[in-house]
Design goal:
The chain has about 250 residues and is α+β, with helices and mostly antiparallel strands. The chain has a four-stranded mixed beta sheet with strand order 2-1-3-4, covered by helices on one side.
């Protein structure tokens, strides 16, 4: 059995899959992709994942992309403690959380991070280098967003909408954890993995939202998550830059 995982720093979508694969105890070969050097757009990597995104799982030569899909595959394909609830209804609740992360939490967190980070990243490059890197991004939507972020072109309405989303996410997580240790069915699931991958940076990057006074249950949950051996192993993976943590 050959399992290869191509990933960035232990943050955002890479952290999602790193948590799942460590929690399941699946032996794998790690392939680190440096996002700040745009290695996800190198020709060698694009042959594996033409979208130029991380993470990518390769199991016995078969390629899977999209972190939420990868995590469900890891849970189904390998032995180890189950990461989904047994009850179909609870599985539905779990998938509502993972969908919410993919469609609301992560994009809002990422775009705000891009707004803060990418102009400096682009400005530190030699003249023309950022544009050359930009041209290599295969997805037009992402290419356009990076260009917009680099120019400081996000509107105040967009920024405020993403800030509002993060406040909504925070309240939703705090409410779900009030009286409960985990987000779904009072047990650790892929919902916790997905939310944690984004939420770990919130006390630092958005401390006015995530703090011991405003969100005591969410803060306690973060500590429970960090104490899990699989999550701790994921967080201990090499972190060569601060970009992924800034992203989520």
């Amino acid at each position: 059995m050959a399992v290869d995982l191509y990933h960035g720093e232990p943050g955002s979508n890479s952290l999602k899959v790193l948590q799942a694969i460590h929690e399941k105890g699946v032996p794998f070969t790690s392939h680190y992709i440096n996002l700040t050097k745009f290695e996800q757009h190198d020709p060698e990597y694009l042959r594996i994942n033409p979208a130029g995104q991380v993470p990518t799982l390769v199991h016995d030569g078969r390629v899977l992309v999209e972190s939420t899909v990868i995590n469900e595959y890891i849970d189904d394909a390998f032995p180890g403690p189950p990461l989904k609830p047994a009850d179909p209804y609870d599985q539905g609740l779990m998938r509502i959380w993972t969908k919410y992360v993919d469609e609301v939490f992560r994009p809002s967190l990422s775009f705000l991070a891009w707004h803060a980070v990418i102009p400096g990243l682009a400005g530190a490059m030699p003249e023309g280098a950022f544009e050359e890197r930009l041209a290599r991004i295969p997805l037009k939507e992402k290419r356009d967003k990076w260009a917009l972020a680099a120019s400081g072109g996000f509107t105040e309405r967009e920024l405020e909408s993403w800030r509002h989303n993060l406040a909504e996410v925070t309240d939703r997580v705090e409410q779900a954890l009030t009286g409960h240790n985990w987000l779904v069915a009072d047990r650790f699931t892929l919902a916790d993995i997905a939310v944690f991958a984004m939420a770990i940076s919130m006390p630092r990057s958005h401390g006015h939202l995530w703090n011991a006074e405003r969100t005591p249950h969410a803060m306690a949950w973060l500590e429970r998550m960090k104490a899990r051996p699989g999550v701790a192993a994921a967080l201990a993976m090499p972190n060569h830059t601060s970009f992924a943590r800034a992203e989520g």
